[in-house]
Amino acid sequence: MILHMTASSPSASRASSKRYHHGDLGPALLKAAEEELVENGTESFSLRAVAKRAGVSHGAPAHHFGDAKGLLTALAAIGYDRLIAAQEARQAAAAKDTTSQLIAIGLGYVDFGTANPALFRLMFSSEKPDRTDEAFASSSLTAFGKLVDLVQAEVGADPYADTAAMKDVVASWAMVHGLADLILSGRIERLMGLSQRPQAETDAIITNILLRPIER
Amino acid sequence: MILHMTASSPSASRASSKRYHHGDLGPALLKAAEEELVENGTESFSLRAVAKRAGVSHGAPAHHFGDAKGLLTALAAIGYDRLIAAQEARQAAAAKDTTSQLIAIGLGYVDFGTANPALFRLMFSSEKPDRTDEAFASSSLTAFGKLVDLVQAEVGADPYADTAAMKDVVASWAMVHGLADLILSGRIERLMGLSQRPQAETDAIITNILLRPIER
DNA sequence: GGCACATCTAGACAGTGTCAAGTTTAATGC
DNA sequence: GCATTAAACTTGACACTGTCTAGATGTGCC
């Protein structure tokens, strides 16, 4: 029953060996959870299936994430980090003027949503993540802060002090969020066939739409 | 064990009597399902809890809706009808020019979302309803058709023939959908405190935002 | 080297959706 | 009015779920 595995070093790689201690189960569970999420969606998510996929018993996840909510909260926080990375990638490739940068974070938002629809749903349309969790709140506030800062630079007023500027923030946020949601749920495809078009053309259409809330 | 209930007529009222045949179980289950949805949300929805709430056994719903998906599909279709009603109420109260009517269906969309957040989530952010269901598809297309028709009247071009007009449709839809989603999920409250303001003021703010995708 | 602690397994529990079989009532045909 | 058919509903079974408990196993610290 006991395979002693005297082979070389127990150097924390060799992930699939049947050792009693996994060695790196936390990240492995997050990876398995995302795969499950992609395959089965947020709603029929199963913690036991995640454990099975990671090759551990059904009780193992509790030691790392408490309960299912804890695991999904950690995954959603990772989602926010990935959202921010997608936005920064677009920002780096865009012109440095404020308007271009504002559009860039919008394009990054849509990029993230279409590339990670299951995660998007988990982050924005699910009650399962605990929004008071520190990592979750921190990452989501960072993403929101980027928007606020760029709108402030664009309109020249602090949204927290100027209602008109805050309306610009809300309008920009609603537009990009609604657009991403409609695209990744497949509601736009039938109307505009974005997936059939070259990337530059899709970007141009999205840019055109994202400009509307802020241009005067 | 058998209460014959010879009282007067078996006239399909007397809903709570312990008869073997409920008499009107379909609608009663829909009502119970919505109550459960409001109390527990889309994600921890339980068919057995719905049956218990309606006072029937856990197997009873299958005879009316097949499975849980069937019940939630029927409920989502009702949701679309209610959305349309909310839009028509706003349209009736609004000026008859195209722009006012377009804003009216947007305000009705937001009205519906804030009044029925659980239903909104079910209709727009859940995989549970069967989107190929006839009643569901019909009602959702009716709602979408109102938007298309009004945008067509507003911009003077058929969105299905004119890409620019279709972009106007998508932009308007994304804006109102994103705005409703952000409001009913509580993300806007902290920023604008809409629920604290008088209705007319909230309407004015939403109107201002909803105008942006279409004004040139 | 021994001991405390973190990690993980295994079993139990109440709850879930769906299926099959049986019971009760309503509707239909004559 | 009465038998027969169909619809409505109950009941029990099944495999599955998340979480709790107790126990087994390995790691790291002193």
From TrEMBL, chains A, B:
Disordered: annotated span: 1-21
Bilayer-crossing regions: none
Keyword annotations of the record: DNA-binding, Transcription, Transcription regulation
Cited InterPro entries: Homeodomain-like_sf (IPR009057), HTH-type_TetR-like_transc_reg (IPR050109), HTH_TetR (IPR001647), MT1864/Rv1816-like_C (IPR025996), Tet_transcr_reg_TetR-rel_C_sf (IPR036271)
Gene3D superfamilies, sorted: Tetracycline Repressor, domain 2
GO function term, MF aspect, one: DNA-binding transcription factor activity
Residue span(s) of domain HTH tetR-type: 23-83
Superkingdom assignment: Bacteria
Pfam hit, one: TetR_C_33
Ranges of the DNA-binding region feature: 46-65
Keyword DNA-binding: yes
PANTHER family named among the record's database cross-references: HTH-TYPE TRANSCRIPTIONAL REGULATOR RUTR (PTHR30055), TETR-FAMILY REGULATORY PROTEIN (PTHR30055:SF220)
Protein name: HTH tetR-type domain-containing protein
Protein's organism: Hyphomonas beringensis
Source lineage: Bacteria, Pseudomonadati, Pseudomonadota, Alphaproteobacteria, Hyphomonadales
